[in-house]
C-alpha cells in the first residue's frame, strides 16, 4: 500500500465507516478493505480498495466522498463497486469490468471473499451458503478475467 494524502484520508474514512462492523465469519470487517488495499499499487486503486464498501455498507454517500475531496477516478470506481439493490449481480459485475481500478479491486475482493481459510468449522455459516458464494464468485471472476 502507498501512503499519500488521499490514501490516508481513505484509510481514516474506511476505519470510521467499518469500525463497528464484523464480516460473516465474525472478524472485524475493516480487515477486509485493508487487506485489499495492501495488494494495490497505485494511489487510485489503494483509495478505491479502502472505500469499495463504504457507500454500500455505511451511511456515507458518493456525494459525501466528493465533498471530502476524493477524485473523480475514485468516485467513479467506488460508484461502480456499490451494488445497487435490484441490479442482478452479474450485470453489476459486467459494469465493473469497464473500469480498470474497479476491476482490479473487485478481482482482489472476489479472491479474498473466496478464501476458504477465512471460515472456521464453527462459524455458523451453512456449507450450502459457502458453496453458493464460491460459485457466484467464480462466475464473477471468470467474467472480469475475460478480456
Q: Can you put this structure into words, describing what you see?
A:
This is Bifunctional (P)ppGpp synthetase/guanosine-3',5'-bis(Diphosphate) 3'-pyrophosphohydrolase. It comes from Brotonthovivens ammoniilytica. The protein is mainly α and 147 residues long. It is 63% helix and 0% strand. The chain has nine helices and no strands. It is globular. The chain starts with a helix and ends with a helix.
Percent range for β-strand residues: under 5%
Distance between the termini: 26 Å
Q: In terms of structural class, how would the helical and strand content be classed?
A: mainly alpha
Task: State the total count of DSSP E strands.
Answer: 0
Mean pLDDT: 93
Figure out the total of helices: 9
* Overall shape: globular
- Rg, Cα atoms, Å: 15 Å
Helix content: 55-70%
- H/E series: HHHHHHHHH
Low-confidence residue ranges: none
Largest sheet: none
Amino acid at each position: 500500500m502507498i501512503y499519500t494524502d488521499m490514501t490516508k484520508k481513505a484509510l481514516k474514512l474506511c476505519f470510521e465507516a467499518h469500525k463497528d462492523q464484523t464480516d460473516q465469519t465474525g472478524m472485524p470487517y475493516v480487515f477486509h478493505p485493508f487487506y485489499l488495499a495492501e495488494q494495490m499499487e497505485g494511489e487510485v486503486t489503494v483509495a478505491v480498495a479502502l472505500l469499495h464498501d463504504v457507500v454500500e455498507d455505511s451511511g456515507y454517500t458518493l456525494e459525501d466522498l466528493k465533498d471530502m475531496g476524493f477524485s473523480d477516478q475514485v468516485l467513479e470506481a467506488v460508484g461502480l463497486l456499490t451494488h445497487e439493490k435490484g441490479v442482478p449481480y452479474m450485470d453489476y459485475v459486467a459494469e465493473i469490468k469497464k473500469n480498470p481500478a474497479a476491476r482490479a479491486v473487485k478481482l482482489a475482493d472476489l479472491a479474498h471473499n473466496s478464501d476458504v481459510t477465512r471460515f472456521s468449522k464453527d462459524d455458523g455459516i451453512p456449507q450450502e451458503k459457502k458453496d453458493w458464494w464460491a460459485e457466484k464468485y467464480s462466475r464473477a471472476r471468470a467474467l472480469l478475467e475475460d478480456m
